[in-house]
């Protein structure tokens, strides 16, 4: 990877996957100037720029020394002549200039990322003068590009894009009145942007007044008034898009200084990732939510809140993001690509709350930041993420009065901590008032608790039974006790533990026992589960709610603050006998819960939702069963694999089943069935995310085929093995195993499995060139689906029959099947499979030399595939585009992109199709590598019959070559990915 320089905003050098910020020293100033110029610069000009106060001889001498130091930097390759210096390096400024010169306004706007060399202070008059001139020139050009791009968008009636464009431009250029006027004029015609435009005007007027003591132009003010009148007419209120959170049920108190600091940092162009760092219970979550509510409207797509506190594994982060975005996760294998595709053109604030226990999964944040330029991320964590581009803001307790405060001079109610305590106390005890003689104790409470919001709220509940003076005494006793008996406890936890311990003493023995029993639950629970597992009545649950240990949400589930959960579990853990009994009851209950929710009927969606809601409890029950080697429980979770598959959370599921495999291997012969089941379930989920463990599937078959009464499981294990072999390029073996699975399905009389296996067998026979047999299998499957009125299966069969007829060369029949199937897919809203039909129609157009039709189909498939991303669909579309490209360089780019996908997926048959396309391209330009590729395609055992036939047309007399075909294949992949035409 070469060196790249970004000069807009905070300047950085990107080299070998590292980012080096420009420092305020002369060697970096020199590099910034050379990167900006991108051409030969005279030594005299450089000497004057950096040493304008020195004589020419001294300045030239200093420059020689500086150039020598710069040459030692690993990321710099300077070219020098006697009187000139040049650094040829790619930069964002050069990109902007190219786009601007060619009138590519969209890319020009996108490449501008803020003021040139923003914040790079030099204290050098000549350098500062040069920089000021260039900054203003670029700012002027940027505004021109914005207005030109806006005019283009307006002509196409792309109002949403215009709205986003203007908001982004005004963040970079807050005093660009011409841009503001254009935004206001647009918004008079577009109600969707009126609130944001008026907010932009008010922000502009405020900055103009504060920085220059000026007011907006009369024409600008007139536009704003017209817009304000329009808002009144439409009765619109400012709105803020904020997804993924439940609004707090209490008003936000104080924290104005912190909020201003957060908003200032997020408003800075260079800040893409901001982490609020602080101890548990400090109020980071409320600050993040309040921030989003205040500035969310500044982002075109608003803000999204991703709650992470209850996640137990990094593999759960991606599904949590999808859930918060209300984005269907349809394919776990390509979840990251789908997420990036969704966010790439969005302008949004993403909030990740409680990241400290998932730091190993933070790479997804980096991918979002690298691929989605208009996304900003706000995280809350007890620990820093420790990234180079991470900005930090330490969050401490709420403002508290000092001991020296005189209430008569400075009312203590002005301090945030006091306000929070008083509000919470009055909510608990309506008769509570802060008397003058109690103010000193109020100050002490705030100090003892260090302004910690959660501790203040819990301590306030004691006002029901204690005076403030008594609360102080009890807190001091607790603090002293903890400091002397638990010195290993982190300092930041001691005050909070005192609060919990004292709150615990206010519970009666039955309530204490109830809280311990409930500690076995994870991420909330229902009333029924609490009664069944812990024997707790609704009255006790509501009492614990009233005492702030539980909360009841809108759905009726009971929840706890994470720190209350931790404290309660410690109490349960101190009673080993009770702990074991509760864990066993908990495990029994949730395995029954799963067994009562079988998949395969009209209630599937309801059951999936119910399982997802209680997934953390199910996960806990699973781990307990594994720990206890309870193989009978593990056999009962028949449809848990279906949940993970349909919810595209395959990595999580695979991890659960692998945990079980490790333990069941030591459990003896009685666990053979459970072990076989776990093996094929882990193998199936693995194959859904590109992990093709054929050995694991073979082991499942071996374990299950000797067991009576496990025919259904054996059938599923065989079909899993077959799927893995097909992807890896072993069609003969795959067919053999699937035919055995079909035989079992016929024996047990499962028509749905029979139809599915027939389709799979037909597909394998098509690959092997056994077209007549394949058609018979497809037609039998079609009849079964028609008898079951399975519209999805019928639609899929039209696609399969279309592929079959294409391979046979019967193109009119193939088009008839595919067009009818495409019509059904549209009518029935099966949008997920539409791109498959389009690619197959594109394949026919390619073979019949209708290249524009092929291009149209494949481009439409690519576009629709972004909604429900499937990597194989994308690779197939790219292959078609590569094969019809007239330009060799363009074709190679399509093939390289497709090959990266296929090689990553380990889909060998797909790789072979790409080799055929590249071979054809090389053949057209007389590249000698064409012969090697055709030979590889012809001889590889995973090659489809129709592809082998095409390769044979290019080979006059194919000969058996003496080479290791797999090594040769890997070499070809590497060569194609690194080559250019």
Q: What would you note in describing this structure?
A:
This protein has 981 residues and is mainly α. It has 46 helices and 15 strands. A six-stranded parallel β-sheet has the order 8-10-11-12-9-13, with helices on both faces. Helix 15 links the parallel strand 11 and strand 12. Helix 33 runs antiparallel to helix 34 and helix 43 packs antiparallel against helix 44. The radius of gyration is 33 Å and the shape is globular. The two termini are 19 Å apart. About 2% of the residues have low confidence.
Number of helices: 46
Q: Outline, from the CA principal axes? A: globular
Q: Uncertain spans, ≥5 residues at pLDDT below 50?
A: 235-240, 479-495
Give the strand line-up of the largest sheet: 8-10-11-12-9-13
Described by strand count, sense and barrel closure, the largest sheet is: 6 strands, parallel
Fraction of residues in H or I helices: 55-70%
Helix/strand-derived class? mainly alpha
Q: Oligomeric state of the chains? A: single chain
Tell me the total number of β-strands. Answer: 15
**Range of strand content:** 5-15%
Distance between the termini: 19 Å
Radius of gyration from the alpha-carbon trace, in angstroms:
33 Å
The residue-averaged pLDDT reads 84
What's the helix and strand layout?
Layout: E1 4-6, E2 12-15, E3 18-21, H1 26-37, E4 41-42, H2 43-50, H3 56-71, E5 79-80, E6 84-86, E7 90-91, H4 92-101, H5 105-111, H6 125-155, H7 159-172, H8 177-189, H9 194-212, H10 218-234, E8 242-243, H11 256-267, E9 273-277, H12 284-295, E10 303-307, H13 317-325, H14 335-343, E11 348-353, H15 363-371, E12 375-381, E13 390-394, H16 416-428, H17 439-448, H18 453-460, H19 468-485, H20 491-505, H21 509-518, H22 527-534, H23 538-546, E14 551-552, E15 558-559, H24 562-573, H25 576-595, H26 604-613, H27 615-627, H28 631-636, H29 640-646, H30 650-664, H31 672-688, H32 694-704, H33 711-728, H34 731-748, H35 751-767, H36 771-787, H37 791-808, H38 811-827, H39 834-847, H40 851-865, H41 871-884, H42 888-905, H43 908-924, H44 929-939, H45 945-954, H46 965-978
Parallel strand pairs: 1-7, 8-10, 9-12, 9-13, 10-11, 11-12
Antiparallel strand pairs: 1-2, 2-3, 4-6, 5-6, 14-15
Helix pairs in contact: 1-3, 2-3, 4-5, 5-6, 6-7, 6-8, 7-8, 8-9, 8-10, 9-10, 11-12, 14-15, 16-18, 17-19, 18-20, 19-20, 21-24, 22-25, 25-27, 27-30, 29-30, 30-31, 31-32, 31-33, 32-33, 33-34, 34-35, 35-36, 35-37, 36-37, 37-38, 37-39, 38-39, 39-40, 39-41, 40-41, 41-42, 41-43, 42-43, 43-44, ...
């Amino acid at each position: 990877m070469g060196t790249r320089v970004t000069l807009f905003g905070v300047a950085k050098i990107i080299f070998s996957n590292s980012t080096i910020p420009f420092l305020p020293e002369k060697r970096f100033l020199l590099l910034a100037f050379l990167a900006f110029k991108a051409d030969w610069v005279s030594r005299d000009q450089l000497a004057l720029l950096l040493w304008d106060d020195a004589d020419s001889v001294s300045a030239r001498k200093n420059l020689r020394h500086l150039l020598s130091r710069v040459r030692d930097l690993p990321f710099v390759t300077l070219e020098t002549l006697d009187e000139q210096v040049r650094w040829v390096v790619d930069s964002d400024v050069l990109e902007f200039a190219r786009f601007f010169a060619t009138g590519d306004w969209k890319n020009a706007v996108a490449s501008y990322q803020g003021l040139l060399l923003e914040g790079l202070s030099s204290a050098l008059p000549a350098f500062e003068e040069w920089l000021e001139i260039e900054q203003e020139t670029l700012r002027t050009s940027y505004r021109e590009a914005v207005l030109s791009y806006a005019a283009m968008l307006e002509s196409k009636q792309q109002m949403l894009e215009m709205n986003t464009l203007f908001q982004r431009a005004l963040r970079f250029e807050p005093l660009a009145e011409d841009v503001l006027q254009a935004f206001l004029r647009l918004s008079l015609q577009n109600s969707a942007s009126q609130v944001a435009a008026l907010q932009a005007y008010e922000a502009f007027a405020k900055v103009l007044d504060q920085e220059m003591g000026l007011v907006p132009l009369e024409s600008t003010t007139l536009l704003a008034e017209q817009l304000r009148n329009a808002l009144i007419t439409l009765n619109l209120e400012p709105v803020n898009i904020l997804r993924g959170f439940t609004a707090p049920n209490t008003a936000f108190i104080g924290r104005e200084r912190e909020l201003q600091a957060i908003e200032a940092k997020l408003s800075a162009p260079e800040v893409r990732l901001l982490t609020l760092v602080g101890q548990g219970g400090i109020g980071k979550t409320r600050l993040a939510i309040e921030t989003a509510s205040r500035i969310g409207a500044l982002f075109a797509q608003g803000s999204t809140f991703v709650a992470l506190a209850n996640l137990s594994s990094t593999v759960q982060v991606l599904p949590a993001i999808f859930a918060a975005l209300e984005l269907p996760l349809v394919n776990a294998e390509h979840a990251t690509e789908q997420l990036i595709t969704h966010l790439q053109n969005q302008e949004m604030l993403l909030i990740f709350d409680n990241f400290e226990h998932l730091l190993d999964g933070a790479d997804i944040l980096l991918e979002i930041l690298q691929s989605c330029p208009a996304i900003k991320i706000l995280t809350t964590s007890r620990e820093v993420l420790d990234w180079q581009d991470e900005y930090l803001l330490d969050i401490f307790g709420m403002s508290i009065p000092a001991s020296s405060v005189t209430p008569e001079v400075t009312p203590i109610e002005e301090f945030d901590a006091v306000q929070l305590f008083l509000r919470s106390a009055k909510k608990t005890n309506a008769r509570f008032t802060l008397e003058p003689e109690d103010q000193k104790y109020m100050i002490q409470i705030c100090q003892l608790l260090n302004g910690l919001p959660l501790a203040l709220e819990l301590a306030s509940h004691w006002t029901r039974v204690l005076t403030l003076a008594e609360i102080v005494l009890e807190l001091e006793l607790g603090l002293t006790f903890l400091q002397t008996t638990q010195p290993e406890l982190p300092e930041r936890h001691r005050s909070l533990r005192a609060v919990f311990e004292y709150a615990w003493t206010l519970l009666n023995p039955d309530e204490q026992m109830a809280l311990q029993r409930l500690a076995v639950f994870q991420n909330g629970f229902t009333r029924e589960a609490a009664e069944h597992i812990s024997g707790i009545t609704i009255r006790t649950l509501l009492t614990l709610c009233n005492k702030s240990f539980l909360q009841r949400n809108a759905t009726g589930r009971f929840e706890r603050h994470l720190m209350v959960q931790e404290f309660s579990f410690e109490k349960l853990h101190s009673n080993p006998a009770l702990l074991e009994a509760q864990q066993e009851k908990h495990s029994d209950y949730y395995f029954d819960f799963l067994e009562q929710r079988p998949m395969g009927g009209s209630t599937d969606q309801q059951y999936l939702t119910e399982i997802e809601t209680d997934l953390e409890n199910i996960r806990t029950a699973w781990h307990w069963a594994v720990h206890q080697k309870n193989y009978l429980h593990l056999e009962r979770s028949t449809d848990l694999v279906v949940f993970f598959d349909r919810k595209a959370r395959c990595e999580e599921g695979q991890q659960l089943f692998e945990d079980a495999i490790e333990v069941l291997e030591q459990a003896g012969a009685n666990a053979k069935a459970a072990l076989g089941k776990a093996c094929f379930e882990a193998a199936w989920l693995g194959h859904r995310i590109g992990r093709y463990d054929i050995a694991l599937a073979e082991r499942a078959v071996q374990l299950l085929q000797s067991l009576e009464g496990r025919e259904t499981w054996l059938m599923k294990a065989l079909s899993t093995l077959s799927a893995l072999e097909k992807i890896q390029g072993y069609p003969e073996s795959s067919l053999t195993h699937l035919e055995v699975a079909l035989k079992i399905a016929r024996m047990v009389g499962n028509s749905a499995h029979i139809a599915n296996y027939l389709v799979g067998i037909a597909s394998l026979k098509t690959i092997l060139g056994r077209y007549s047999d394949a058609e018979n299998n497809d037609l039998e499957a079609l009849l079964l689906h028609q008898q079951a009125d399975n519209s999805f299966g019928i639609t899929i069969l039209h696609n399969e029959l279309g592929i079959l007829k294409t391979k046979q060369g019967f193109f009119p029949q193939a088009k008839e099947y595919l067009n009818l199937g495409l019509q059904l897919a549209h009518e029935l809203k099966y949008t997920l499979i539409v791109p498959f039909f389009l690619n197959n129609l594109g394949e026919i157009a390619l073979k019949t030399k209708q290249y524009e039709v092929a291009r149209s189909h494949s481009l439409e498939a690519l576009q629709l595939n972004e909604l429900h991303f499937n990597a194989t669909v994308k690779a197939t579309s790219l292959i078609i585009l590569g094969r019809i490209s007239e330009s060799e360089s363009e074709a190679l780019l399509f093939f390289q992109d497709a090959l990266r996908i296929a090689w990553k997926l380990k889909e060998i048959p797909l790789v072979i199709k790409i080799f055929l396309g590249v071979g054809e391209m090389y053949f057209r330009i007389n590249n000698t590598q064409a012969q090697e590729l055709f030979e590889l395609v012809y001889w590889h055992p995973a090659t489809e019959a129709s592809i082998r036939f095409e390769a044979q047309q290019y080979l006059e007399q194919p000969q058996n070559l003496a080479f290791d075909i797999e090594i040769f294949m890997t070499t070809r992949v590497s060569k194609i990915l690194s080559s250019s035409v």
